[in-house]
Amino acid sequence: MTAPSERLQGTVDVLILKTLAWKPMHGYAIAKFLADTSRGELTVEGAALYQGLHRLERKGLIRSRWGTSDTKRRVRIYGLTPKGRAQLVAEADGWKRHAAAVARVLAVRDAHA
Amino acid sequence: MREPIIPTRSHEQIAADNRTELDGWIEERTADLAARGMAPEAARRRALEEFGDADGATRYAARQDIAADRRLRFWFWIEELGSDLRIAARTLARTPTLSAVVLLTFALGIGATTAVFSIVHAMLLRRLPYGGEQTLVYLPAADNGVIRPGLGGGRHSSAALVALRERTTSFSGIAGAAQGNIILTVGGEPEQVVAVELTPDGFDVLQARAAIGRTFGAREEAGLASHVVVLLDGLWRRRFGGDSAVVGRTIESSEGPFEVIGVMPPGFRVPTYEQAELLMPRDLAPLLRNTNNSQVRFLRLFGRMKPGVSREATRTDVDRAMGTLRADFPQSFSDIDTRVMPIRTAVVGDAKPRLLILMGAAGFVLLIACANVAGILLSRAIARRHELAVRVALGAGRGRLIRQFLAEGGVLAALGAGLGLLVAQLGIGVLRHITTAALPAGTAFALEPLVAVFAVGAAVATAFASALVPALGATQALGVALRRDDGRVSPSGANRQMRLGLVAGQLAVSVVLLVGAGLLLRTLQRLSSLDLGYATEQALTFRLQFTRPHPPAEQDAFWASIYEQLRAMPGVLTVGGGNIPTSGQSTVSGLAIEGRPSENGRLPDVRYTPASDDYFAALDIPIVRGRAFTAADRDGAPPVAVISAGLAHELWPAADPIGARVRPDPGKPWFTVVGVVGDVRMGGADAAQPSIYTSQRQDHWPGGGAVVIRTVADPQAVAAGIRQVVHRVDPTMPVIGLRTLEEFRRSTPAVAERRLQMQLLVVFAFVALVVSAVGVYGVSAYAIEARRREFGIRLALGAPRRRVLWLALRDGASIAALGAFVGVPLAVLLASRLRDLLYAVGPFDPLTIGVVLGTLLLVVLAASIVPARRATLIDPAETMRTE
User: Fold this and answer.
1) Cβ atoms of B703 and B548 closer than 8 Å
2) How many C-beta atoms surround the C-beta of residue B532 within 10 A?
3) ipTM score
4) pLDDT, position B138
5) CA distance B392 to B371
6) Which of B106, B686, B791, B805 could form a disulfide with B416 if both were Cys (CB 3.0 to 4.6 A apart)?
């Protein structure tokens, strides 16, 4: 069993990877993208996201460079590395299966209720 | 295409970067919130609140970044190292001949040092096959303060053993050992085996256990079982096929049947009797009943010190005991001392200083190889200074450049170690072949793990040492190169001096080795032209050992028949019987003279051997006075003896010894002196030994004897038929040690050890000289290349080509002079430490030094003449144009 914080980290990591698969972005842009795509359902705390980005960079799954945001601010832009893309494919499959399994379990409990 | 390199960052920079990133993030969010109509202040507060624990997050991020950075640095380092190694390999491959020479010298240096180290390891470092090396001592006898050299040296009488056991308190046990020969007649050819008779407590004193069976026990100690033997591993494997069932079996020998009670583990050897293959118990009781037991000295003593007793205390104890012994028995022990010697010193003997000399010589070769490699790398570095300058301009630090050189060293080290091990393996094979006569028998040495580690260590150390010199030199010089942009490489300055110094150093070391080799060569020359008192050319010798007791009459018949049969062989001139002067088989004995009281009850020591009528003729020992033995000197006739001129002069300085009566052994009759013969030398260099000869037909020795055959022409032609002739007389008789007298003499330790030393030094000196020549060539070629323009101008101005040639040669000459200036005094200094190896040659031998300097000059000239000639062929017009 993974510890709750690790599972949470795993969730954040896979969300970051999925977001960056779309295009390279800076930290706040990722946060906004996540909030928008999940229609406000998924709000990841900035600090957790920030930590996740540095963690993924250490693991070599993403790589950063300095850039300029749409609002002309100096921001750190992150992009997927080939290794990160491969990781995403592996993780995403796992997550989909996991989510489907959870959904099935929930459906069974509904039937008994 | 390679991905752009992310520069590594300091911790401060990481913190600053993360702060900037965080600030940007908060500002973006604040701006978003403000755009939705929030007041700027509230928007910023809200943004911070939403973000959460900013401090914790930045701390976490910094940790992640630092870890990532560290890994990055590591990979950079590996990558740079890889590229350094690639560049190094490419640089070395660009000049294959030079690199091959460098590697070869490296491999020779490492290989030679390692091969010699393998012997050093085997003899000086390896554990001895006895328990508690620290408490085991050898107790040799010293006469008038000197331990006699050779096989007879250090021996005590059984009375001395008993006295030491009784009168000392430092030992838990003192064992005695005596050498004897025995012929094994079990299955196949009878074979002579070196046996050691050991007092039954010997194994306890040595703390050695049998691998199979047992060693001597209570029955042997009580003197109840004397016909038992313990086999050493070598004999057991060779003769009994390593069959453990041999324990308990009875084997036949010339001394009767023996029961095998045990087999010693491999590697076990009786100290100082390294050739022994068989151990028998020696019961001293019968000897101690003999009143004359203080005169016959045949035992080597080994003591086991009690725990906690120091060697110093033991020495005092033994000295005190010997003092009381001398006081009680002044006739027997007046000038005998007992030394206390660490067992390793006894086993290794005087091989240690010789080994250290060889080790030093091998180290010198390694040093020369180092200097050479350093020189070559240095000149390469100078040739590459523009490339290096460009790299510095592009941001490579000095450390990076030094590492580049070290990488070259590393590549050389790896290749050098590999090749060096190969050379060492070959060298060890060669050493095994040539050291057999010069090392204690059974000294096993091989490329063992520790030896291999030594080789690799030596390779790495030398490679890096020789890379570091040019690394520091070149990077220093770089400062100069960067400041001066005329693109000229000036041969003057620190670098040139460093190179000249390196080569001069090589030559100096070569001189030392050459002088050492030369002095030993001269010593050998003196030794081989030394008049031994007998002729070694065109003569054969071998021993015959009786495999069963022969009564006197049978002995006479046997020898007569042997001599007759051998004399009948084609090519045989004379046949004599008796011990060879160098054989070590002769007995040393105290000689009594009729009607003359002995001084202090001590009799003069003489070499004593029975001889046949033709012994002196066969060995070519001149008869000085009187006569040799004749057919009339037989049993029943008055016993006669022949003495050596030296002995005659010593005992009868003014009178005629002929007619005097002497007795070499108290159990023998008086012998009348009938002749005086020339002196013979025992070993190579030892002084002539006073000798007494008795007639083989009047003085019958049990066991057997040696035969000398003087041949008309090539002795080898005769050698082939000897075994057959002997077997015609007695088919069971083994022919032992058949060889020419010349071979015999060469194998005596005095000659063999010096020969080995000389051969190795010659090899080392040759390698050193070749390597130095490469160095000289390199320096000259480089210096002349650098002075091309100067020479061109000189030629253009009308300088004769001869003058240019001299200018070009001058460098080589000055290096040679410097090398000689340093090398000769150093060589003389070191040679004076070699003094005990030299014979009739002083450490400062003008001829040797002259020849060495001549050789040096020739080699230096040869090495610099090629580049110098190139200098005279420079076309002045061309040089001027290219400038």
Assistant:
1) no
2) 22
3) 0.84
4) 92
5) 27
6) B106
The tokens describing B737, both together, are: 């040690």
Judge whether B137 and B344 are in contact, CB under 8 Å.
Answer: no
Answer yes or no: do B307 and B383 share one domain.
no
Q: Is residue B491 part of a domain?
A: yes
Residue B577 lies in a domain: yes
CATH number, domain containing residue A93: 1.10.10.10
Single residue among B339, B361, B385 that ends a domain in this structure: B339
By Cβ distance, the residue of A45, A58, A76 closest to B52 is: A45
Q: State the CB neighbour count (10 A cutoff) for residue B831.
A: 24
Residues B575 and B514 placed together within one structural domain of the fold? no
Contact A26 B67 (CB under 8 A): no
In one-letter notation, the amino acid at residue B389 is A
- Percentage of residues in chain B having pLDDT higher than 90: 13
Which residue segment(s) compose the domain that B855 sits in? 351-528+750-882
What are the DSSP calls for B153-190, one per residue?
A: TT-EEHHHHHHHHHH-SSEEEEEEEEEEEEEE-SSSS-
The alpha-carbon gap from A39 to the nearest alpha carbon of chain B, in Å, equals 17
Q: Are residues B651 and B706 in the same domain?
A: yes
Shortest Cα–Cα distance, A15 to chain B (Å): 17
Range in A47-56, B362-371, B821-830 the model is least confident about: B362-371
CB contact under 8 A, A27 and B52: no
Give the tokens for residue B133: 């090396």
Selected residues 45-104 of chain B with any CB under 8 Å from a CB in chain A: 50-54, 56-58, 60-61, 64-65, 67-68
Q: Do A26 and B50 touch (CB under 8 A)?
A: no
For Cα atoms B330, B335, B338, give the angle at the middle one, nearest 5 degrees: 110
Q: Which helix (H) or strand (E) holds B662?
A: strand B661-663
Q: Does a structural domain hold residue B450?
A: yes
* 81-100 of A, contacting B, C-beta below 8 A: none
Tokens of B790: 């100067």
- Phi/psi at B19 (5° precision): -65, -45
Is the Cβ of A76 closer than 8 Å to some Cβ of chain B? yes
The pair of three-digit structure tokens given for residue B10, joined into one six-digit string? 């300091």
Q: Is the pTM of this model over 0.80?
A: no
Residues of A within 8 A of B50 (CB-CB) are 45-46
Tell me what pLDDT residue B261 has: 92
Query: Look-up: residue for tokens 């050739």?
Result: B275
Q: Are residues B177 and B68 in the same domain?
A: no
The structural domain count of chain A equals 1
User: What phi and psi, each to the nearest 5 degrees, are found at residue B689?
Assistant: -100, 130
Q: Which domain holds residue A45?
A: 4-112
Q: CB–CB of B200/B221 below 8 Å?
A: yes
Contact B466, B409 (CB under 8 A): yes
Do B774 and B684 belong to one domain? Answer: no
- Residue A33 forms contact with B (CB below 8 Å): no
**Tokens representing residue A50 in the block:** 């920030």
Question: Residue B117 has what pLDDT?
Answer: 81
- The answer to whether A58 contacts B24, with C-beta atoms less than 8 Å apart, is no
The pLDDT tens digits for B13-48 are 888 888 888 888 888 889 888 888 888 888 889 888
Q: Would you state the torsion angle of the CA atoms of residues A30, A35, A36, A39, taken in this order, to the nearest 10 degrees?
A: 160
**B580 in the same domain as B693:** yes
Strands B250-251 and B156-157 come out as: unpaired
Instruction: Assess whether pLDDT exceeds 50 at residue B161.
Output: yes
Q: What is the mean pLDDT of residues B432-436?
A: 67
Q: What is the DSSP letter of B394?
A: T
Q: Are strands B691-695 and B605-611 parallel, antiparallel or unpaired?
A: parallel
Residue where the block lists tokens 């010193």:
B345
Looking at the structure of chain B, the number of domains it has is 4
Answer whether residue B116 is part of any domain: no
Residues B633 and B507 reside in one and the same domain: no
Residues B499 and B386 in one domain: yes
pLDDT in tens, A48-101: 889 999 999 988 899 888 888 888 888 889 999 999 898 888 887 887 888 888
